Amino acid sequence: MLRFIIVAITITMMTPIAILLIIVRKAYSAYKLAPLKMKELIAFISILYLIFTSLGNLSTSKSVAFFFFESSIIILTIMAILAFLYFRLLRTEKIALEILIICFLIIFLKVISLISNPIQIHKHDDIFVREADLSIYGVVASITVLALISIEAGLLYKDASRKPHGKKYSRYLLNAYSIVVILVPLYLVGSVLEIFSIFIPYLQGVLVSMIALYLAIVFRKKPEKLVLLPVHIRGLLLHTYGGLAIFRKALDPSFERVIALSSSLVASIIGLETAIEELRKTYIFRVHQLIETTIIMFFGKITVGTFVLNRDNSVIRAILRKIVLEFERTVGYIDEGMITDEEITIAKKILNRYMEFLS
């Protein structure tokens, strides 16, 4: 009977995660953006954590249970690190090497903790249960990654709340992940009281399921908003290599005049690049940093796309690349000195596909 209850609880907790996985996978299939892929991976790993924990509970031998339980701890740590990197990816122009080293050290601390202080396993009515990993190394690793997630979620909320719809969706993300901070005092209590130590791993599973349920509910209609960009995009421009503007749009109406002036500036930069470079370099980015404005240019095969915004961002680069490449695939060829209404319409249609990320 107890084994059946464990299976039923596991399936119940997996259900909202599976729903979120389906929602995110559908959005990723449409846009192929890294944060959506990372969110999909987080959901998949969350399911693995619940499966491994359940398999540990239902194992027929202590050694098999030990393998599944220790594996589940590493899986949970990787999932938390990916959540941190998800927020970091939304906020920055790239994931720095120092950040990757910190992530590696967190996993290394967890492994050292499990080797030097193997988890304690207890058997109750043919069911195995485990205590939490509460050695000094394990607690330091867990609290560190929870602190990193909280800081990044808070910074994303601070930056994104300046946008018209950013405050609403960044608050959703902050609400979802701020709940994990309740684990910190439990780690401290669990190191003293065994009953709390046994309770923690299952609370972690419940929290993972609750986060997925909340995100599935609030983002079910607009999963694109999971790619919440804390940047102020002033406008988009698309030029031929002859410097002729195919399309320009001020995403912030107050910058209409600035975008018009930027079009001439971008045309001059394209002309300068073409004149200086002996060979045309394609599929590369050029970033021009002004005092309070950043100009990101992507040089395609026959066109150059440009975002004018307040700062560089890795996801914005990916979107710009997709807009340019999709336009070039659609039109095939374009005259550097002449633009047709059809080409302008195609550019507008492609931009509209990505407006949910840019507004």
Instruction: Using the alpha-carbon principal axes, give the shape.
Output: elongated
Oligomer: single chain
Please report the total strand number as a whole number.
Answer: 7
The whole-angstrom Rg is: 25 Å
**End-to-end span in angstroms?**
52 Å
Number of helices: 12
Beta fraction: 5-15%
**Overall pLDDT:** 90
Summarize the main sheet: 5 strands, antiparallel
- What class, by secondary structure content? alpha+beta
Q: In percent, how helical is the residue content? A: 55-70%
Spans with pLDDT under 50 lasting ≥5 residues?
A: none
Please give the order of strands in the largest beta sheet. 4-3-7-6-5
Order of helices and strands: HHHHEEHHHHEEHEEEHHH
Describe the 3D structure.
This protein has twelve helices and seven strands. A hairpin with a 3-residue loop joins β6 and β7. The longest helix has 30 residues, at 2-31. With 359 residues, the chain is of the alpha+beta class. The model has no long low-confidence stretch (mean pLDDT 90). The protein is 65% helix and 11% strand. The termini are far apart. α1 (2-31) packs parallel to α8 and α3 packs antiparallel against α4 (97-116). It is elongated. The strands form two sheets. Strands 4-3-7-6-5 form a five-stranded antiparallel β-sheet, with helices on both faces. Strands 1-2 form a two-stranded antiparallel sheet.
